[in-house]
Structure prediction request, 658 residues.
Amino acid sequence: MSETVTYREAVVRAMADALAEDDTVFLLGEDVAAAGGVFKLTEGLQERFGARRVLDTPISETAIVGAAVGAATQGLRPVAEIMFADFVAVCFDQVANQLAKYRYMTGGQVTMPVTIRLVNGAGTGFGAQHSQAVENWFLNVSGLKIVAPATPADAYGLLRAAIADPDPVLVFEHKGLFNVRGALDGPAAGELGKAHVVREGSDVTVVATQMMRHRAEQAAQQLAGDGVEVELIDLRSLAPMDVPTVIASVEKTNRLVVVQEAAPSGSWGASLIARVLLDGFELLDAAPALVGCDDVPIPYAGPLEDAHLPSAGRIVDEIRAAMER
Amino acid sequence: MKTNRSSPETSPAGAGLAADQLLAMLRRMHEIRLFEDETHRLFAKGLVRGSTHLCQGQEAVAVGVCSALDRDGDTMLCTYRGHGAVLAKGAPLDRSFAEILGKADGLCGGKGGSMHLTDVSVGALGSFAIVGAHLPIAVGAAFAAMYRGSGAATACFFGDGSTNIGAFHEALNLAAVWKLPVLFVIENNLYGEYSPLASTTPIARLADRAASYGMPGEQVDGNDVEAVVACAGAAVARARAGEGPTLIEALTYRHKGHSRSDPATYRPEGELEEWMQRDPLLLTEAALRERGVDQAALDTLREQAAGDVAGALERAMSWPDPTPETRLEGVYA
Prediction:
């Protein structure tokens, strides 16, 4: 049974279904309970599941993530919200040094079924400290799983998969996509670590996530009118990264364009391109392209932020340029 | 005394411990002291990698608090100066030595080392090497007890230096707001790494910080194991009764420097010698003699502990190193 829901509704429903199914699941975060979340991503959950399972916290990101880690040592499945992903800088130690390494450093004595939801991304005028593509900060931390859904179906499926997973998962929810509508088919969990081929094509492989996946889709439609067939892949999971799906596509198209909402240095796009070059250099007819942002903080004003982020038009131009190389 | 902190106003002892209970605690304190002395020697021989942080002098805090955690399901978290706490919670001597030696059968399979001794099977949830990081994690463990209504309590040990890091504030505040069953135990040994407390902290009585979080703040003589048991026992009772967290400041002293690279030259002349006279092992022996236990029995107890520690070390030394492939295991479940 398929129905159309918004990305926001999909996120709320994923948590509601997980809470209903498993008493070890609980939610904590700033204003997630009584207020239903500043982005309304937990709306109605405290009313439905009670104050025992849906808890407001002080503005204390270190305590939020630390409490989730400690609860996980005792077999609970915490779902913690970081209101704006950028705030995770405040508790980077808890994520990178504690959560990610706890199982390994103890020789596997504990599991860490912790989900951290973080509101990610630019395009909505929040400025440099509330708009970053924060998933990139964690690519070099062993022990984490990282997902970045772009559609309601993935927002639901990947969040369910994250909550059910025995390992720590960071789920980045893009604030520019909360009103995007899409189909949701039943309460099935998605699969972590699997890319999704959004559109098949034979001329060029384009890989994108979140907001850029939607812009790349527009670009692909425009290029199709000119006879350029784009194979569009939504990577969805950044750790583990589904490199085989990308390589299988490049085997067919022999060209690769990666589109991301971040500067190249230390980004998932740069990591993906490195992996494709290492594992499939001979498959490429031309150098890959990395379409992203300049290496500057995200500016506030509309014209500045618009220029900062790859637009559908710029993605079209970059794909054309890649085709001509 | 060169320090004005060695004869504190403390909670009354009054634990009324039976001689056999106190003997068991003394035995455990001997084991910790001897374990640390051996670790010191192993480090000097190049058998301990990186650094190691010893707790000789602080044994009564670990043993006293862990003795108050007397129910299955009670949990404990400690710092990188945590060998004593992990042993006090019941981790085996041999596998603890083996972890420090980096052996395959170490508590953590050689993945953790001296700073990360962990034995979840006895409720020792971890030793944490980022100052203050485990206080919020202790809050989470205590939250789980409340969530399940298990009645379990959590104790979290940390140094005086940890009271100046943000995680301390966030953890105490949240634990108090949620009325969680947790004991925050400051092992105040007067120095944060190489710096005397007064140079980093504007108040002398760290227990006073509890007032900011609306929780009781108790100061206790950390070298008097009976006083520690009494203080921790009252806090555990409060925790189990749903009355929330307690901040305990245990006044104690580390006989060695911060780490194995620290000769502790910053200590005023005579300070160590004066604290050595208040060595918790000596104080406990004196308390037992007052209860009519004779010196021969006390000597036998120490010899038994020494035999156990020596045997454990011998076993640990004989165990194999981990195979290189095991480094790839245990990242994910």
Remarks:
- The longest strand of chain A covers residues 77-82.
- The interface with chain B takes residues 26, 52, 55, 57-58, 60, 62-63, 65-76, 78, 93-94, 97-98, 102-112, 142-143, 145, 166-167 of chain A (CB under 8 Å).
- DSSP finds eleven helices and 14 strands in chain A.
- The longest helix of chain A spans residues 210-225.
